[in-house]
Amino acid sequence: MKAAPTIKRHMIAVLVDNEPGVLARVIGLFSGRGYNIESLTVSEVDADVGLSRINLVTIGTPMVIEQIKNQLDRLVPVHTVHDLTEEGPHVEAELVLVKVVGVGDKRVEALRIADIFGAKVDDTTLESFIFRLDGQTEKIDRFIELMRPLGLVEVARTGGVAISRGSEGIKPLASTWSVSE
Amino acid sequence: MSDKMTGSEIVLRALVDQNVDIVFGYPGGAILPIYDTLHQQNSIRHILVRQEGGAVHAAEGYARSTGKVGVVLVTSGPGATNAVTGLTDAMMDSVPVVCLTGQVPTHLIGNDAFQEADTTGITRTCTKHNYLVKNIEDLARIVHEAFYVARSGRPGPVVIDLPKDILQAPGSYAPPSGNGHRTYKPRLKGDLGQIGKAVELMAKAERPLFYCGGGVINAGPKASQLLTELVRLSGYPCTLTLMGLGAIPASNPQFLGMVGMHGTYESNLAMYNCDVMINIGARFDDRVTGNLAGFSPDSAKIHVDIDPSSINKNVRVDIPIIGDVGHVLEDMIKVWKARQCSPDRRKLDAWWKQIDKWRQRDCLRYEASDKLIKPQYALERLRDLTKDRDDVFVTTEVGQHQMWAAQFLPFEKPNRWMTSGGLGTMGYGLPAAMGVQVAHPDALVIDVAGEASILMNIQEMSTLSQYRLPVKIFILNNEYMGMVRQWQELLHGGRYSESYMESLPDFVKLAESFNAVGLRAEKPSELDGIIEEMIAVDRPVIADILVDKTENCFPMIPSGAAHNEMLLGRNDQAANPVSEEGMILV
Ligand SMILES: Cc1cc2nc3c(=O)[nH]c(=O)nc-3n(C[C@H](O)[C@H](O)[C@H](O)COP(=O)(O)OP(=O)(O)OC[C@H]3O[C@@H](n4cnc5c(N)ncnc54)[C@H](O)[C@@H]3O)c2cc1C
Ligand SMILES: Cc1ncc(C[n+]2csc(CCOP(=O)(O)OP(=O)(O)O)c2C)c(N)n1
Ligand SMILES: [Mg+2]
């Protein structure tokens, strides 16, 4: 028997036509074919040509990841699929809002840790904070872990987005952006 | 700017500009405006089916036998949901179909309005793409785009959902732009570097095998000629999938018969033992590979496919080539000739000797009988009594009869064999035959059927009769869901749970009630006469052929087994119980 193939986390960027149903198509593909979605974000990135970018994080064996990319690519409204994890170094970030409720020492400690992490305080009452933090997924995971014993009551995360390092940009097939070539 | 037209007029105009001459459909409230426009024109002929499911299969038969896009017209709600099985079938078998569905008016969408269904939601996974038209100014472009998407790349079904207000709104028409689609542009030419590597590997092969499938048919008749040419040039053996039958002539001595679960002994053993496998337009389906762990363990694999997601899906290949079969074959032949490839004749001869030994097993042999009509014998007679004709098209239902038809009927050309492979939809054959006959009015169109399957779309007899479509339904009547019974014997101790067909109709009277001709053969001696009469009659016919009720379909690779673990007959069946892993597979 061959050794079991390794399962790895991949950050994938998909440029799509911003048309109705395109997100449902992508999500349906994952549920219908039993692939994992760790996180998924979507937003319009070029309103002039109606272009949206889906950033998704998935895990799987190399064969499954290849299938995921090919399956995404064959959807009609999909322009391009980029596996940032495969393509090299990239900057990855995610945003989280965390609500922590507490008084006394716990409240002081929560604020102190937030400060160390560079989180912003977006809202406060006498017994609660809402912290806003961005950064890499692992950092956000750690922050949330630390807040847990300090009165964590609610977490809202965006899921990761990423962009490759260097001067090269992902070139959409139809776009108004300048392309440096 | 040209004068304003209504949405319905725009749709029909677009169909005409897409060279549509036939639509298969069924009216209803939401789609009535199109029916009204249809009534006032002569360019497009409408065939009124008796259930929307039949319309989609008819469009599939039309498409598969002509290479054109099949067109379906149905109403909202139940009209659309009835079309879902056909759409899924077309999706699985890569058949180009455009299905226009009526929808409640835009302002009522989402209100649970009368006959509202979320058609784009329901059909999202069973179409290649779908559209809900919300703006009349998008209508013409969307219709043209839908045809482009349906026929380009890997073909498939496309749904256009048309709210009733859009069909009645004024708008302007635009002819096809010729640009197809803004971003969907499938790659046709294969990478020449990869093609070069593939040819090199092919030329060095000692035990090569071509394994070709539906993609060759999808690529058009020219691709089949090119394949036949490359097979001849190389001198290599070739096997075909169920969907690929006809891609090279069945009479070609290099053709080894069908591969897979019910494929021939020689094809499957060649698959298992080959050292270079050349997959052209086939998708390593589980009916073909059997147990993946034991699939062709020693071969280097070349795979030509237009859909990158078909590559490395089930089986890892060494040389993938993404492109259209026709284009790639053309380049392969060029390179083969330019390099003056000459395979090692001695090794190749040895391989053919081995193959001939496998052939001598005569794996399709069955026990002849002069009392009972063996289903295989019935098909052999059908084959022999039609062999001098060049106009025979065959469709099938799903079951043992389908597999026997694949094994015993020879297809010399592509587009002559229409069967439901990927979805395995009982009830496909009769409406598909209807679509074939509409496209080829003078041809001999035969639906090889089972008595269970035929009842699933029997209502289409009425359509045959209305349009005088002389389809010949050849029922191999074993009074069982034979394929189910065979699996129950193999896997469930012969407990025939619900697989006996009780209370069958009298098919002769049934035919007559539809104003068709009913015939019956009960003994081998009656068979030829019945077949001859069936062919001679210029009306739809149901020929009820009462066959041996106990016959099973062999060879068979049972679930979970590999190609070298084929069952060749009942005795093998008893001696080789199916593995536990095999029990859970379908
Ligand atoms: C009861 C039953 C038993 C069956 N038993 C068998 C069996 O024994 N043997 C068997 O073979 N099948 C059998 N089947 C059918 C099986 O389920 C599959 O439908 C079939 O094997 C698939 O055929 P294919 O690989 O040729 O692929 P298709 O489904 O025809 O797919 C075609 C492939 O070609 C590609 N393609 C399409 N157009 C082009 C183009 N222009 N250029 C390049 N590539 C293109 C597509 O992307 C796709 O990958 C059975 C079905 C039933 C219902
Ligand atoms: C719509 C549908 N339902 C169920 C099945 C499962 N199935 C496959 S073959 C078969 C029996 C077919 O019986 P018949 O048409 O008499 O053909 P036979 O096998 O006897 O030749 C069944 C029920 C199917 N393929 N399609
Ligand atoms: Mg039967």
Highlighted features:
heterodimer, A: 181 residues, alpha+beta, 4-stranded antiparallel beta sheet, 5 helices, B: 586 residues, alpha/beta, 25 helices, 20 strands, binds flavin-adenine dinucleotide, binds magnesium ion
Distance between the termini of chain A: 48 Å
Structural class of chain A: alpha+beta
Biggest sheet architecture of chain B: 6 strands, parallel
Please give the share of residues in helix of chain B.
Answer: 25-40%
Please tally the β strands of chain B and state the result.
Answer: 20
Cα-atom radius of gyration of chain A: 19 Å
Number of helices of chain B: 25
- What proportion strand of chain B? 15-25%
Uncertain spans of chain B = none
Put the structure in a nutshell:
The complex is a heterodimer of chains A (181) and B (586). Chain A has helices at residues 22-32, 62-74, 84-87, 105-117, 137-147; strands at residues 8-17, 39-46, 51-60, 78-83, 90-101, 120-125, 128-135, 152-157, 161-164.
List the helices and strands and how they pair.
The complex is a heterodimer of chains A (181) and B (586).
Chain A: E1 8-17, H1 22-32, E2 39-46, E3 51-60, H2 62-74, E4 78-83, H3 84-87, E5 90-101, H4 105-117, E6 120-125, E7 128-135, H5 137-147, E8 152-157, E9 161-164
Antiparallel strand pairs in A: 1-3, 1-4, 2-3, 5-7, 5-8, 5-9, 6-7
Chain B: E1 5-6, H1 7-17, E2 22-25, H2 32-39, E3 45-48, H3 52-66, E4 70-74, H4 78-82, H5 84-92, E5 97-103, H6 119-122, E6 129-132, H7 139-151, E7 157-163, H8 164-168, E8 170-171, H9 192-203, E9 208-212, H10 214-218, H11 221-234, E10 238-240, E11 255-258, H12 265-273, E12 276-280, H13 286-289, E13 300-305, E14 319-322, H14 325-338, H15 345-359, H16 375-385, E15 392-396, H17 400-408, E16 417-418, H18 429-439, E17 444-450, H19 451-454, H20 461-466, E18 472-477, H21 482-491, H22 507-513, E19 517-521, H23 524-536, E20 541-546, H24 570-575, H25 580-583
Parallel strand pairs in B: 2-3, 2-4, 4-5, 5-7, 6-7, 9-10, 9-12, 10-11, 12-13, 13-14, 15-16, 15-17, 17-18, 18-20, 19-20
Antiparallel strand pairs in B: 1-8
Helix pairs in contact in B: 1-2, 1-7, 3-5, 3-18, 9-14, 11-14, 12-15, 16-17, 16-23
The site of flavin-adenine dinucleotide has 37 residues of chain B, from helix 10, helix 13 and helix 17.
